[in-house]
Automatic annotation (TrEMBL):
Signal sequence residues: 1-17
Domain Mechanosensitive ion channel MscS C-terminal: 413-494
Record localization: Cell membrane
GO cellular component, one term: plasma membrane
Record protein name field: Mechanosensitive ion channel protein MscS
Gene Ontology molecular function: mechanosensitive monoatomic ion channel activity
Species in which this protein is naturally found: Polaribacter aquimarinus
InterPro entries to which the protein is assigned, alphabetical: LSM_dom_sf, MS_channel_C, MscS_beta-dom_sf, MscS_channel_2nd, MscS_channel_C_sf, MscS_channel_TM-2, YnaI-like
């Protein structure tokens, strides 16, 4: 009995002490931290004094200020925005330096709710006039018109709690999930239909491979719509701040992951369409650009997505960007060669000095271009050996692209014996000209066959021709056919090719015969010989003939 009596005596003192404790906490608007703390503290259940919380709003009546202060807190709670008081600055002259100029303001949630912020007016900090003006619209956005209607029709039994959650909230959550499922099915079909129409408008055809990618793209797009629907409706269920905080964190993470997936698939679709375009172009360098661009854009999407996820987990964006900038600068300085090669790669794709499978001469390297990568270009020489040339060097040196020639030029000198009669020289030159005109792989309008000079051991006949085909194999076959025809012409005319020799003149004896060849310069015989060689030449079939 004495213990009960003592307890009854102690209770008034405890209540009095608690009341004194609440009264001892005064309204403080001297800095951002104090203003936000005053607003939230006096709207808690155990310290509920809305008239003090309303003092954080300037320029309105007490009743109107109380209503707006309560709505600001409800909006923050409804969106699951937990205010970390430890991160709010206590500097009375704090300035927000984000933007072109500095302002004495502090934004509570710059990424998710930039409309709600406090600013310094005079010597005190208040919720900004913009925040107070927009709070009604924000409140209606978070808690639509039907929320109050639902509250009015919920029976008393619906407010019974199970595991701290009211029964009507369980039922409403189930209804929202069912609606979200049907919305997913409908939006998925609509998204695929729209994407396919856009793709057909761009490419003017139907590609089954692209259709498969579009179906994969339509799925995350429909999921994003469902997440947006859930994000819009969930605050209406009026769960506690703790529940809302975790739910909206999960929704934002899900949304970010889906957006990463969407952009990855979008990159895949765009690269697929671009690859179809490059297949229709003459240049094969564009084909090589497809995997490089695909890798680059994929990396950009992943990096930006990871930055976004880190921001959701509370990492400061400014600090992260500053660290990334400094780290990127340090990385660039440490890998100057890699950066130079990357710039060289960009210049190669912009200037296009060669294409894939072009035969080039780059310094001491001669061969066929097989691949252009991020860092180097692979060139295969005639002996099948492979050269890896850094793109930084390749973009600076002189490149002779033989693959861009309009024709393949062939120039040689034929040496005739010094004792060849002028009539046979003229006949031989005429015959070679006729062979070139009759050759299907040479340009008949551009050639030169002339007696150009006197060599050390031969009379020189220059032969300059242009082969039509740029393929190395066909060029060699065309040379073979031309050479065989010239050798046959010389044999029919009785013309000998000279070689380095020394002639010794001695007195000839009557019984000794002259060693010099006997030339037949009869005009009819010469014409018949040329005609015979030309007929044989036209009747032969060589590689490269169509």
């Amino acid at each position: 009995m004495k213990k009960i009596f003592r307890l009854l005596l102690i209770i008034p003192f405890i209540c009095f002490a608690q009341t004194n404790k609440q009264d001892s906490i005064k309204v403080d608007l001297s800095n951002p931290h104090a203003t936000v703390y005053t607003h939230l503290y006096f709207l808690q259940l155990d310290s509920y004094q809305p008239q003090k919380a309303a003092q954080t709003i300037l320029g309105y009546s007490e009743e109107e200020s109380i209503r707006k202060a309560i709505k600001i807190k409800k909006v923050l709670d409804g969106k699951g925005l937990f205010v970390d008081l430890n991160r709010i600055p206590t500097n009375p002259n704090y300035k927000d330096t984000i933007g072109y100029s500095s302002y004495k303001r502090y934004v509570l949630f710059p990424q998710r709710m930039p409309q709600i912020y406090i600013e310094k007016i005079g010597e005190k900090w208040y919720y900004s006039s913009e925040t107070v003006a927009k709070i009604e619209a924000l409140y209606k956005e978070v808690f639509p018109w039907y929320v109050q209607k639902i509250q009015n029709i919920i029976p008393v039994s619906g407010h019974k709690k199970i595991l701290g959650v009211e029964l009507w909230q369980f039922v409403a959550l189930l209804i929202v999930l069912v609606l979200a499922y049907f919305l997913l099915l409908i939006v998925k079909r609509i998204a695929f239909y729209i994407l396919r129409k856009i793709q057909q408008q761009i490419t003017k055809n139907t590609n089954f491979e692209v259709d498969k990618v579009l179906k994969k793209l339509a799925h995350p797009l429909s999921l994003l719509v469902v997440v947006a629907f859930f994000d819009k409706v969930f605050p209406s269920l009026q769960f506690s701040l703790d529940v809302n905080t975790w739910v909206f964190l999960a929704l934002n993470i899900t949304k970010t992951v889906f957006w990463i997936y969407v952009f990855l698939k979008l990159v895949q679709v765009v690269m697929r369409i671009y690859s179809e375009f490059t297949e229709r172009t003459h240049s094969r360098l564009d084909d090589q650009l497809v995997p490089i661009l695909h890798s680059f854009f994929t990396g950009v999407v992943i990096v930006v997505g990871l930055f976004r996820l880190l921001i959701l987990f509370g990492v400061d964006a400014t600090t992260m960007l500053a660290g990334a900038t400094i780290g990127g600068l340090a990385f660039a300085l440490a890998s100057q060669d890699t950066v130079k090669n990357l710039i060289g790669t960009i210049m190669i794709f912009l200037d296009k000095p060669f294409h894939i499978e072009d035969w080039i001469e780059a310094g001491e390297v001669v061969g066929t271009v097989e691949k252009v990568g991020f860092r180097s270009t692979r060139v295969r020489a005639a002996d099948t050996s492979v050269y890896q040339i850094p793109n930084s060097k390749l973009s600076e040196i002189v490149i002779n692209n033989k693959g861009l020639r309009l024709f393949r030029r062939y120039n040689t000198n034929l040496g005739l014996r010094y004792d060849t009669p002028p009539e046979l020289i003229e006949a031989f030159v005429k015959g070679v000209r006729e062979i070139i005109i009759a050759h299907p792989e040479t340009r008949s309008e551009a050639y030169n066959v002339e007696f150009t000079g006197f060599g050390d051991s031969a009379l020189l006949v220059m032969v300059n021709v242009y082969f039509k085909s740029l393929a190395w194999g066909i060029e060699q076959s065309s040379k073979h056919r031309l050479h065989i025809a010239i050798v046959k012409l010389a044999a029919e005319l009785g013309v000998d090719f000279a070689f380095p020799s020394t002639t010794v003149t001695i007195e000839q004896f009557p019984e000794k015969k002259d060693l010099l060849p006997k030339y037949n310069t009869n005009t009819d015989r010469i014409n018949k010989a040329i005609s015979k060689v030309l007929e044989d030449f036209k009747g032969e079939k060589f590689e490269g003939d169509t």
